[in-house]
Structures are given as C-alpha cells and as structure tokens.
Design brief:
With 351 residues, this protein is mainly beta. It is built from 1 helix and 25 strands. Strand 7 and strand 8 form a beta hairpin. The longest helix is centred in the first third of the chain and has 33 residues, at 2-34.
Length: 351
Amino acid sequence: MKKQTLKLFTISLIGFVIIISVLLYFFSERFTRSWLPIDNGFGETVTLSPDDKSIVFPFYQSGDGALYKADVNGSNVSQLTYPRQEESHVHPRYSSKGDKILFLSQEKGEDTLTRSLYIMNSDGSELVRLSEDDELITDAIFSQDDQSIYYLAAKDYQEGNEMEEGPSNIDLYSIAVTGEGKERLTHDESLKKRSLSLTKDGTKLGYVEWNKDEENGLHSSFIVMDTQTTEREYVKPSFDFPTNIIYTGKLSPSGDLVVFSAASENPRDKSQFIYEMYTMKSSGKEVQPITSFRTLITDPVFFRDKERVLFIQDQSWLRGKPNYKLWAVDINGERIQSITLQMPQFSGTIL
C-alpha cells in the first residue's frame, strides 16, 4: 500500500513539474516575443550614419540590449550605452548631421507598458530623456533640420496572434529636441504604424500603417505624408502583387522609391508566411523582388549616396527564437553581402 501511494505521489509530482515547466515556457516565450525577442545577439533594427560609414545597432546579452557603434563593414565595434538590468536600448536613429542619436529605452518587467525616448551625442555622451513617463513609443526619427523629432506612440497593448500582438492604437506625433512643443499629427489610432523614414529634403515622411476590418481583414499600406500639410497618400503595390501585408518599408532619400518587406505564402507550408524584400516606385508601380531568403526580412535602410540598402534577416524565422543577421545589397538585388559584426567578447551593463 505504501509503495502504491509513493508511486502515485511520484507520478503526480512529475506531472506537476511538467505542467509548470510548460506554463513557464509558454509565458516566457510570449513575453519574450512581444517585448524583448532576443536573449543574445544582434537586434532587429539598425541606423546608418549620413556619410554611410558607420552603423549603430542594439546587441543583446542575457535579454538586455545596449547600443553599439561600428564601421559599416562590421569592424571597430564600440559600446555607446550602458542600460540597467531589465532595460534595453532599441531603435537607434542618426540625426541628419550625424552628431546626435535618438533611441528608445524599453523596460522589461511585469505589467510594463512604456518605451521612453532619449537623445544623446553620437559618442554616447549627454544622454537626455524627452518623453513622458507613461508613453509607449514604438519608433522615432529626426526631422531634416534636426530641431524636432517625429515619433509613433501607442495607447494600448493588444494580445492576439503573432502578427497582431503588441502596441496598438498608434498615432504620429512631433516634439522639439528640447522636449517642448509636443503635437499630435494623426488622429486615426490605427492598429499599428511602424518604420518611419524621411526624404533628404524633409518634405515627405514615410511609414507603414496596419488596419483590420471585416472586408479586408488584416491589411497594411505604405503611407507618404507631406510634412507641411500632413496630407497623406496611401501607396500599395500594383494590383497583381500577391499580398496585402507590408511588414516594414522605407522611403528613399529622393522620395521616388520605396523598399519594403511583404508577406507571401511559404512554398513549403501554405499555412505559414515568409517576408521577402522588394522595391517599388512611390506610386506603387514597378514592383521588383530583391531577396529570396524564405525567412523574415525587416528594417531596410537606404544608403544616402549609393543605390544600396542595409537589411536584417531573421535566420530562425518559423523555427524558434529570432536570430538576426545584417546584410547589404544593391536595390536591383545584385552584390549581396553578409556583414559580420566583430563584437568584443564581453560588454557590461550598469547594475
């Protein structure tokens, strides 16, 4: 009798441990994907200096991301920011003169719904916070004269599937680099807005807008906004393009071209989507594919003085946690180059 009781107890204990392990895995995966999708390695965004010579990017260690600077070929890596534990610095952007960098500080914690906007010198000095305590900022970019900042801020955080989960009800704002003069520029509270970009002359602002309705389901467009009048033009790839989901996209410095990542069916599994990179005219015509990785392409970035883009590929798309890699390619799809970051062996964080 005692043996049977012990056996039942052992089986129950093992079952309990398995259930707890599964729950912990599920919630950690869900949390990790929604806020800090990387434990260690290169982040999902990058910014290129105005002279096309250096990049700034987040790099994660044990779930916390700091910003690093490197030559555009991946050499001469140095650390710029030193976040606290449970904090990550993400979405860096150079100013048009290259002397300033803005970024978002993202805190990792239970019920945390804030991302704060910071600005600093390009060497990491004189860091200043610009945003309010309760704002959930998802992207930001300098104006052409570097005197103000355009940024996207969300009102809510939405649960749901992998495509829809995350910050939602997002609008576009502007604020002076001094932190004054906050102004709301859109009032549509779309499901998502992402991927801010600005033409070299500062007259056109581009971003991707996501919406969901009964007629079209989840769909997105590339938006080109006049920065003086705030009038917006909705750009979609030509009618024969196989998807209505643009994931990310950027305007070229001249404003006549858009490079974007868009969804298509995975040829190996029709129930899954892959995201390749394309170019199109700002009218939506002349769509041309650039990549054929059959993974996820995110955050393309135009060079200023070359017909070339940087982009990031998730090498583990559909196979587990993200594993991002940096590439460069001409806008016609030629001269593709893998960029290996020569990271130092150890980088500390301020505790």
